[in-house]
Amino acid sequence: MFDLPEEILVCLDELSETYGVGKNVSKNYSELSENYRNKSFKELNFPQAIAYAQGRMPATYSVIKYVLERFKNIGKNFSNILDVGAGVGALKIALRDCEVNYEAVEKSEAMRKVFRKLNGEDVKICSDDFRKFCCKNRYEAVFASYFVNEIKDKKSVLKKIFALAEKYVFILEPGTPNGYKNILEAKNLATELGWYPLLPCATQSCKLLEKDWCHFSIRLARTRRHASLKNATLRYEDEKFCYVIFSKKETKFENNNTIIKKPIKKSGHIIFDVCTGNGIQRVVRTDKASKKLQWGDQL
Ligand SMILES: C[S@@+](CC[C@H](N)C(=O)[O-])C[C@H]1O[C@@H](n2cnc3c(N)ncnc32)[C@H](O)[C@@H]1O
Asked: What is the topology classification, in CATH, of domain 6-247?
């Protein structure tokens, strides 16, 4: 599990108390959820931005940490990054122990205000709409988490993301058929532009089409406030997500045996659904080492 650092949780509680959001916390969260459910993506006000930080950021933070860890595990890194649609700074928090030059673009004033409360005043955040963001620099990595699904003109925004990146592009999306559609759109464009998928697999044309969608899941703990915000009794939740990391260089490393479903554990054997370069295969394993393998790992 990747839980938000304690100082951030404390800071979030203080924000809620100071701005009186605590009393209306479920109401603010319901408004926020409605905003996402009906896909209106209206700009959030300050109480709703705090509700986002408390109700959604624990999940987006966990997903970001998971993806960064997968990237690190294959021996890759970057020294500077642009965070597009940074929200309240989940990526900034995830990178707090890394020596990385971080910059962000975030158009919502309320989100930027919460971002600064959590991460300090000295972070470089541009207030532009990303479509108008004008920048002469390029970044080793460009990161867009839970952003593309909010955008109407996806192709031109994705093109801009690739144009600003020198080495890596990260796209993280909700683990829904729509989120996956955005990942496929990014993959098609990447091929046109001469980029290569690196993770979760190195296959350019996805084998899971039509009925199914490639996604993963991560479990995270809910704090008391987080649970009460959602009127939930469970003290954990499972966040489903899709992601892709692209590399400008074709790599010899090949992720072509990705476990794409939760492994089915039986007595004496485990069943894995695996995406290979040649299609989806069902594999049965009986050895001890396979017991440790999880959804998203390489078989
Ligand atoms: C769902 S939030 C994701 C925030 C953060 N990346 C995360 O993973 O928690 C999407 C963010 O993108 C921002 N956004 C949407 N369209 C944008 C645009 N055209 N330019 C800049 N920011 C935008 C929204 O204001 C919002 O803060």
From this structure: Rossmann fold (3.40.50)
- Distance from residue 239's CA to the centre of ligand 1 (Å): 18
Ligand 1 mutation target, pool 127, 150, 151, 160, most atoms within 8 A of CB? 150
- Please give the pLDDT value at position 147: 97
What is the rounded average pLDDT of the residues 93-121? 96
| Mean pLDDT score across all residues of the chain | 91
Parse the chain into domains and list their residue ranges.
6-247, 258-292
Instruction: Please state whether beta strands 196-199 and 236-247 pair in parallel, antiparallel, or not at all (unpaired).
Output: antiparallel
Indicate the pTM of the whole model: 0.94
Measured distance CA(9)–CA(112) in Å, rounded: 18
**227 touches 65 (CB < 8 A):** no
Task: Tell me how far the alpha carbon of residue 72 lies from the centroid of ligand 1, in angstroms.
Answer: 25
